[in-house]
């Protein structure tokens, strides 16, 4: 089985918060866009919190204006489906977070898009810089996590972004 390859980060020098997923699913890979599955509520949540509207490029630009970067913990892995449970951990390769944090020194917090992203980061990533950052696992925006309604996810993401953005 072929490895799924992730995307480069959506980030600029003013990024303060890094949102981390695990690895793009099939629909995202096909569309070459983060969170492209129509039932994933990432972009609707970002619309409510930051006003991210329009084309993919316009939504990404909106996040950048608000100091939000988006990336995944994994650079690549064999993943036969789109579920996090499908990630074959023995084939997983983490992204280079030391280089990322070197290029984005204003990052002050990490928002994990679900428990799998948090677990992968804690197990696969060794970064002195990351150990000093504020981190928060937020409810997955994936349609696979259907036990929490949209309103609950939105409230947790909204309060999480406020907490991560506050000054130390």
Quick synopsis:
By secondary structure, the chain is an alpha/beta fold.
Overall description:
By secondary structure, the chain is an alpha/beta fold. It has one domain: Uracil-DNA Glycosylase, subunit E. The strands form two sheets. A four-stranded parallel beta sheet has the order 3-2-6-7. A three-stranded antiparallel beta sheet has the order 1-4-5, with helices on one face. Helix 5 links the parallel strand 6 and strand 7. The model has no long low-confidence stretch (mean pLDDT 93).
Features:
168 residues; alpha/beta; Uracil-DNA Glycosylase, subunit E; four-stranded parallel beta sheet; 6 helices; 7 strands; 18% strand; globular
Shape descriptor reads globular
Q: Number of DSSP strands?
A: 7
Strand order of the largest sheet: 3-2-6-7
- CATH first level: Alpha Beta
- Class by SSE composition: alpha/beta
Q: Architecture in CATH?
A: 3-Layer(aba) Sandwich
**Sheet with the most strands, sense and barrel status:** 4 strands, parallel
Question: What is the fourth-level CATH superfamily?
Answer: Uracil-DNA glycosylase-like domain
- Provide the β-strand percentage band: 15-25%
Order of helices and strands: EEHHHEEEHEHEH
Number of domains: 1
**Distance N to C terminus:** 45 Å
Determine the number of helices (DSSP H or I, runs of at least 4 residues).
6
**Which runs of at least 5 residues are low in confidence (pLDDT < 50)?**
none
Mean pLDDT: 93
What is the gyration radius calculated from CA atoms? 15 Å
What CATH calls the topology is Uracil-DNA Glycosylase, subunit E
